[in-house]
Write a structure and sequence with these properties.
8-stranded mixed β-sheet, D-Amino Acid Oxidase, Chain A, domain 2, FAD/NAD(P)-binding domain, 11 helices, alpha/beta, globular, 2 domains
Length: about 425
C-alpha cells in the first residue's frame, strides 16, 4: 500500500500530531474506537459531501469522516482550478454539474446554521460565472453538435457559435483553424478552499465526527467489512465503509482484492501575466487540451499530459510550460507571445486510465457494505455534491434516487467497456 506523505512518525498518532500542530479542523478524539453506522475514508471535498448528504437523509446515522491531512496540503482540491461546467458528452456528468449549480445558487442559505435564514458571514465562494467555451476543430464538429443537443435537452443554457461569432465576441482568440464552439454562459469557477470548508462545516453541524488519521487497512468476516484500522493502531468498527480517499483510495481497494485502473497522475497549472485585458473572457478549452481562464491581472493556463506516467510525483518540471503549454497558448491566443510566468504548481488527478470518468459503486460481488467513488480524472471538485448524494442514496435507500449513475459503476470496469467523454475531456 502506498504510504501517505503525511504519515506520522513512529509512536505518534495523527490525532496527537494535529493537537500540537495548530490545525483548526475539528477532531473528535473520543470517537476513535467507537462504532459508527458509516465510516467515510477521506475527508476531502467528496468525503465532506458524502457525510452531509448522509446526515441530511437520516439524522439518526452516526457518521465518521477519517482524514489524514487536515490542512489539505496534498488534497486534489487544493490544486484544483475550481471550474464548474455542464459541457459534457455523458448525461450523468451534465446532471451532476447541474446539481452543483443548485448548491452554488443557494450557497448562503445552504451553509447557514439550522433555523437561520438570510445573509450571514458565510465565506464568499468567489463564484465567477463568466462561462465555459468549448472550441474544437472541424473534424469533431458532429461530435460537438451531438453534445450540444443533449446538453440543451438536459436544461443547459448552451449556445452554438460558429468561428466568426467566436472571433466577434472574443477577438483575442485565434479561430482560423477552428470549427464551431459551445458556450455555456452560466458556468464558471469558484474558490476550491471555500467550497471544501463549506461542505465540512455543514457536515459538522449535522453531527459528523471528524477523525484525523490514515486508514491503513480493513478487517472483514463473512462477506462484510467490520472495521477500519488507523495508522495509530486504533480500530474503528462500522456498518458501512466508503472509500473516497482520492489518489490513496485504490491501494486500499487493492488490498481487499479490488484492482481498479486508477492511479495518481501529475498535472501542472501556471499563472501568467500579459499586457492584454481578458476581462469577461470565459474558461476556454481547445482541441489540443489547453485550458485557460482569466485570473486576477492575468491568466491561469494548463495543458494536461494524459500520457504522463502514474505515481506520487509533485516535482515541478521547469521546462513543461515553455515546451508544452506556452506554444499551445500562443497558437490559441497570439498576444500571449509576450508574457511573464509568475508561478507554477502541481497537483494529482486520480486518473481513471480506462475512460477518464469516475467509478462509483457498491462492491456487491464481495463486500456489499463497501462503497467506492474514485477515478474522477479532474472532475471531482465540480461533481462532489452529486457524488456525495449518490453514495448516500446507495447506503440509505440501496439504489440511486436522483441521478442514475449505473453506467459509472464497476460493471464497465470488469467488462473493459469504456464510457468516455466523446468530444473534449
Amino acid at each position: 500500500m502506498q504510504p501517505h506523505p503525511l504519515e506520522p512518525t513512529a509512536g505518534e498518532s495523527a490525532i496527537d500530531r494535529q493537537q500540537t500542530s495548530g490545525d483548526t479542523d475539528v477532531v473528535d478524539t473520543d470517537a476513535v474506537g467507537q462504532h459508527f453506522d458509516v465510516i467515510v475514508v477521506g475527508g476531502g471535498v467528496v468525503g465532506a459531501a458524502t457525510a452531509w448528504h448522509l446526515l441530511e437523509a437520516d439524522r439518526s446515522l452516526s457518521v465518521a469522516v477519517v482524514e489524514p491531512d487536515p490542512g489539505y496540503s496534498y488534497a486534489a482540491s487544493s490544486a484544483a482550478s475550481g471550474g464548474v461546467r455542464q459541457l459534457f458528452s455523458r448525461g450523468e456528468n451534465v446532471l451532476m454539474s447541474r446539481y452543483t449549480h443548485e448548491v452554488i445558487d443557494n450557497w448562503h442559505n445552504w451553509t447557514l446554521p439550522e433555523g437561520e435564514v438570510g445573509p450571514s458571514d458565510v465565506p464568499n465562494l468567489n463564484w465567477r460565472p463568466q462561462g465555459y467555451l468549448f472550441i474544437t476543430d472541424p473534424d469533431r464538429s458532429e461530435l460537438l453538435r451531438a453534445d450540444f443537443e443533449q446538453q440543451r435537452e438536459l436544461g443547459v443554457e448552451a449556445e452554438w457559435l460558429e468561428p466568426d461569432q467566436i472571433k466577434k465576441r472574443y477577438d483575442l482568440i485565434h479561430t482560423a483553424d477552428l470549427g464551431p464552439a459551445i458556450l455555456s454562459r452560466r458556468d464558471g469557477w469558484l474558490d476550491p478552499h471555500t467550497f471544501l470548508q463549506g461542505m465540512l462545516s455543514r457536515g459538522r453541524r449535522l453531527g459528523a465526527a471528524n477523525i484525523t488519521g490514515h486508514v491503513t487497512g480493513f478487517e472483514w468476516a463473512d462477506g462484510r467489512i467490520t472495521a477500519a484500522y488507523l495508522d495509530s493502531g486504533r480500530r474503528l468498527s462500522g456498518n458501512h465503509f466508503v472509500n473516497v480517499a482520492g489518489v490513496w483510495g485504490p491501494s486500499l481497494s487493492r488490498e481487499l482484492g479490488l484492482d481498479l485502473p486508477v492511479e495518481p497522475m501529475r498535472r501542472f497549472d501556471h499563472y501568467v501575466e500579459t499586457t492584454a485585458d481578458f476581462t469577461g473572457y470565459p474558461f476556454v478549452k481547445d482541441p489540443t487540451g489547453l485550458a485557460v481562464r482569466p485570473e486576477g491581472a492575468g491568466l491561469t493556463a494548463a495543458r494536461v499530459d494524459f500520457e504522463a506516467p502514474g505515481g506520487f510525483n509533485l516535482a515541478i518540471d521547469k521546462t513543461y510550460f515553455e515546451e508544452v503549454v506556452w506554444p499551445a497558448l500562443v497558437a490559441r491566443i497570439p498576444i500571449t507571445d509576450e508574457l511573464r510566468l509568475v508561478s507554477t504548481w502541481a497537483g494529482l488527478y486520480d486518473q481513471n486510465r480506462l475512460d477518464g470518468n469516475m467509478i462509483l459503486d457498491r462492491w456487491d460481488d464481495r463486500f456489499d457494505n463497501y462503497y467506492i467513488a474514485t477515478g474522477f480524472s479532474g472532475h471531482g471538485l465540480m461533481h462532489a455534491p452529486a457524488i456525495g448524494r449518490a453514495v448516500a442514496e446507495l447506503i440509505v435507500h440501496g439504489s440511486f434516487q436522483t441521478i442514475d449513475l449505473t453506467r459509472m459503476g464497476l460493471a464497465r470496469v470488469f467488462s473493459n467497456q469504456p464510457y468516455a467523454e466523446l468530444a473534449i475531456r
